[in-house]
């Protein structure tokens, strides 16, 4: 393994082959050993690079978009010339999660590089999160509904990982936030009591599966009662629905479909009724079609964001978004999916809170930059919208960042880099802690970028 002071011709040649030298990233820095317990004292650690170019990892889930219709495919270049093999390009991952870590070079992942260069995280971040990047940055291109799901809190995540590590691959929680790039639709959180009463009164197919006793409890409850009593009734009714037999669910969905298709000839269907008919086409006979009536139906316009905390039910339905979350891939699913369903776990873990989710508009932090700050420490997201001929500077922060160029192009200058680097659509850059970043647009188009970083409240 090369030392951190290596300067031989072969090393320089390899740098050029990997495209690293032009970005100010030395091969010795990439391959510096994590420690040197034996032998002479190690030389001083090299200075942090200004930026590191990354390659994200594309996930080919069946709900994703394909070819030119997929933002993920366009950014990653996986749709060009059929390079994706015709598979949907659903998610682009940028981070250090072991399931799909980003790469700096063919044999060097960002996770490995950070392990050898923990100073890139900043002292507070390295101490809090064990020397790893605390957030996972993604782009989602959604053609059909994702599963009805929830993400466990830390305690449950640890228990699930210990019990079924093949399904729940890590022990971390997974709060997440989606920032809409296009119009983005989702189900999120349980509907208010009055809406649930209307569901039970007007959707006989659901009332039959929930049962007369559980339906009556919810129908009799008063709004002012609130609290634990309502949550208890809601939990019982939702669990009865989600655990109904496949045969009963299939029959109920079939009846619902026939009834709504008949009624639409004489009345306008509600938005929720239109939604469940579209979900039935995607997932025929699935209990998730019926479960949608229990959840809030949310539409985000570009630039609006949705935060989802632990143990809250949700399902992304359509559109494209930037997503950021704690570094985890734990998902408990129970409907609208061909994947493994853990229905009992999902029904037992949910909070059953009935609050319409807050739509985050973001807060301007300087011209052309809007920040979305969730309640969790692990992450925040900045949206940059730079007009032609403009520039913006991100002052040094005490934690790491990842930048992604969505549209347009320009240049990026960071830290002690002597030269600017081109920043074009699809480019991804890792920026170490305490690094100033300057962005410049070029050409006639707006340059749209997103930055993921550690929550500023934690760093302040």
Automatic annotation (TrEMBL):
Known catalytic reactions: D-mannose 6-phosphate = D-fructose 6-phosphate
Example GO molecular function: mannose-6-phosphate isomerase activity
Keyword Metal-binding annotated: yes
Residue ranges of every copy of the Phosphomannose isomerase type I C-terminal domain listed in the record: 372-416
Annotated pathway: Nucleotide-sugar biosynthesis; GDP-alpha-D-mannose biosynthesis; alpha-D-mannose 1-phosphate from D-fructose 6-phosphate: step 1/2
Residues annotated as the enzyme's active site: 333
Keywords (A to Z) from UniProt: Isomerase, Metal-binding, Zinc
Limits of the Phosphomannose isomerase type I catalytic domain: 52-190
Family statement: Belongs to the mannose-6-phosphate isomerase type 1 family.
Name recorded for this polypeptide: Mannose-6-phosphate isomerase
């Amino acid at each position: 393994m090369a030392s951190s002071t290596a300067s031989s011709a072969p090393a320089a040649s390899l740098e050029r082959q990997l495209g690293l030298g032009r970005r100010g990233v030395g091969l010795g820095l990439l391959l510096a050993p994590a420690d040197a317990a034996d032998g002479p004292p190690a030389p001083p650690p090299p200075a942090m690079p200004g930026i590191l170019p990354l390659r994200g990892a594309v996930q080919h889930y069946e709900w994703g978009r394909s070819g030119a219709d997929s933002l993920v495919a366009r950014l990653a270049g996986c749709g060009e010339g059929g390079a994706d093999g015709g598979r949907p390009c659903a998610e682009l991952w940028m981070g250090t999660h072991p399931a799909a870590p980003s790469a700096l070079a063919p044999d060097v992942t960002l996770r490995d590089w950070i392990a050898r260069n923990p100073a890139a995280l900043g002292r507070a971040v390295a101490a809090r999160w064990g020397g790893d990047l605390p957030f996972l940055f993604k782009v989602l291109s959604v053609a059909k509904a994702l599963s009805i799901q929830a993400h466990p809190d830390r305690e449950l995540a640890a228990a699930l990982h210990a019990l079924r590590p093949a399904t729940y691959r890590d022990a971390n929680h997974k709060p997440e936030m989606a920032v809409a790039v296009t119009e983005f639709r989702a189900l999120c959180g349980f509907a208010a009591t009055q809406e649930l009463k209307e569901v039970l009164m007007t959707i006989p197919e659901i009332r039959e599966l929930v049962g007369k006793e559980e339906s009556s409890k919810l129908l009799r409850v008063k709004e002012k009662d609130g609290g634990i009593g309502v949550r208890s009734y809601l939990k019982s009714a939702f669990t009865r629905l989600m655990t109904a037999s496949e045969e009963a669910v299939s029959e109920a969905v079939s009846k619902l479909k026939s009834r709504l298709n008949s009624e639409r000839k004489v009345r306008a269907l509600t938005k929720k009724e239109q939604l469940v008919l579209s979900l039935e086409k995607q997932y025929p006979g699935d209990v998730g079609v019926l479960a949608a009536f229990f959840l809030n139906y949310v539409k985000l316009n570009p630039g609006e964001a949705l935060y989802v905390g632990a143990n809250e039910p949700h399902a992304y339905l359509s559109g494209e978004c930037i997503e950021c979350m704690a570094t985890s891939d734990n998902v408990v699913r129970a409907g609208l999916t061909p994947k493994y369903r853990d229905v009992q776990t999902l029904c037992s873990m949910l909070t059953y809170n009935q609050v319409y989710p807050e739509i985050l508009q973001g807060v301007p932090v300087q011209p052309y930059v809007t920040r979305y700050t969730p309640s969790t420490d692990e992450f925040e997201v900045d949206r940059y919208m730079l007009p032609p001929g403009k520039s913006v500077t991100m002052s040094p922060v005490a934690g790491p960042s990842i930048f992604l160029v969505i549209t347009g192009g320009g240049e990026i200058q960071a830290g002690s880099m002597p030269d600017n680097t081109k920043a074009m659509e699809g480019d991804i850059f890792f920026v170490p802690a305490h690094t100033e970043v300057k962005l410049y647009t070029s050409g006639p188009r707006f340059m749209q970028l997103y930055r993921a970083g550690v929550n500023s409240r934690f760093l302040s």
